[in-house]
Amino acid sequence: MNSMRPAATALCAALLAWTPVAAQTSPPPPPVDAKAQAEALRLVDEWLGGVQAYDRVPALSAAVVQGDRIVWSKGWGTVDAAHTIPATSKTLYSICSISKLFTSVSLMQQWEAGRVRLDEPVSTYLPWAKLKPSADDSLPITLRTILTHSAGLPRESDYPYWTGPDYPFPTHDQIKAKFSAQSPLWAASQRFQYSNLGLTLAGETVAAVSGTPYADYAQTHVLDPLGLKDTHPFLPMDLYGKRLAVGWGAVERDGSRPLLKPFDARGVTPAAGYTSTAEDLGKFALWQFRLLRTGHEEVLKASTLREMQRVQFMDPDWKTSWGLGFTVGHRGDQTYVGHGGDCPGYHTTLQLRPATETAVIAMLTGAESPGAYAQAAFDLLDKRKAFKFRGAPPAAVDLEAYTGRFGGQPWSSEIVVTPWAGGLAMVSLPSHKPADELTILKPKGGDVFRRIRDDGTEADEIRFERDAAGKVVRLIQFSNPRERTGALDAQRTE
């Protein structure tokens, strides 16, 4: 037994040292059923419109990316304080922390060029970036720990810039002046702590090693090459209240929302200062899918982006994992990457599922969480893709005749009915988990449908009634009529 130890030790060491070389291209995603996708997106469209209306979200814009194109985008609500200018998928919003992705791409360009090393102390590039000495035994604060939010850095520079009404963000010089007086939270590489200060240092590093002001560098080397004409490392105030949505606060007890003052992220721009649109963030997602699919270098090498989107740090709670700048998470059997953004008056999310080349973008003014909206869109797309009626095929009927909105009072505000896999999908609004709350109806002929149970079997009968002209005017379930109140909004990609 003892004589085998040297060989076994050598083998273990070799296995630990060996790192498989990632393929330069990703496998093609599974084929997309265009009809299924269109039906799911129609319901996403109706559901998000209901979210905006019933939650009184001032402005909401969204987009869905599939493969090599933006397959759907839309806006609801209004952009200006007077509520006269409609929001669209081209409406500008502060994207706050999604800014960190552009900063991370900028930094990884410097890594590819050999100007920075991820495991080098950040003070190598920023000699002033040294916190107050600590008695903790700590690894150095490196660019890798900064990008994974595991550096033990304070969350913020020591200024009250998240406090209204003025949101006094510090300048570069103010951040630099305060840095050495701040203390680490704990030793580096031990725990996760989200840090705007950390990603600010990443942007400062880009400026230091490139010899170019951060915003100029990002514009020239990331935004312009990607063709992101509506993405800016600042708030374009000449468009404020026109294309740039004004920011609103959380709902007060009386149902009102305070109109918030615009802010300038100044020195915190690398972490929180960008603006963009749903369509431009869709183009950003398209670039990522294209890069991983083709392996053709474009702004970054595919291998670099792949490295950014794999788990680089796992918190001891085994719930929080992070890549290089990207959030990396698991839902079901799928991996999602991306980022969210929360600033005074604006909340945004960009969620990508690389294996299926699907991305969802949601952006709003107010204080609601768009992350849940994006997850619901993924869930509806997946549910429609996987759905098939059991047993005999559904009767062939004109499904469009039954689509529309029906009264839901007093149990819900309204009921929306849309086509679904040869039958109908019915959901009550408002709903915050529409995929879980769908009722699927199988046509039996003669305006009669059967509700489908979760196990795929048929349940109770639902009938539709028509007027003398032959138009469907109500649905009847358990002998209770629901009057048709209107047609669906026209689905569109703006």
Describe the structure.
The protein has two domains: 34-383, Beta-lactamase (3-Layer(aba) Sandwich), CATH 3.40.710.10; 399-486, Lipocalin. The protein contains eleven helices and 18 strands. The protein is α+β, with helices and mostly antiparallel strands and 494 residues long. Residues 1-23 have low confidence and may be disordered. It starts with a helix and ends in an 8-residue tail after the last strand. The strands form four sheets. It has an eight-stranded antiparallel β-barrel. The chain has a six-stranded antiparallel beta sheet with strand order 2-1-10-9-8-7, with helices on both faces. A two-stranded antiparallel sheet has the order 3-4. Helix 3 (99-112) crosses helix 7 (214-223) and helix 9 crosses helix 10 (302-308). 27% of the residues lie in helices and 22% in strands.
Write a compact overview of the structure shown.
By secondary structure, the chain is α+β, with helices and mostly antiparallel strands. The protein has helices spanning 5-17, 34-54, 99-112, 143-147, 172-179, 196-210, 214-223, 269-272, 278-294, 302-308, 370-386, and strands at residues 59-66, 69-77, 93-96, 274-276, 313-314, 321-322, 327-331, 334-343, 346-353, 358-365, 404-407, 414-420, 423-429, 439-445, 448-452, 458-466, 472-477, 480-486. It folds into 2 domains: 34-383, 3-Layer(aba) Sandwich (Beta-lactamase); 399-486, Lipocalin, CATH 2.40.128.
User: How big a fraction of the residues is strand?
Assistant: 15-25%
Strand order of the largest sheet: 11-12-13-14-15-16-17-18
User: What is the domain total for the residues?
Assistant: 2
Mean pLDDT rating? 93
Order of helices and strands: HHEEEHHHHHHEHHEEEEEEHEEEEEEEE
Number of distinct helices: 11
The CATH architecture of the largest domain would be 3-Layer(aba) Sandwich
Query: Which structural category do the helix and sheet elements fall into?
Result: alpha+beta
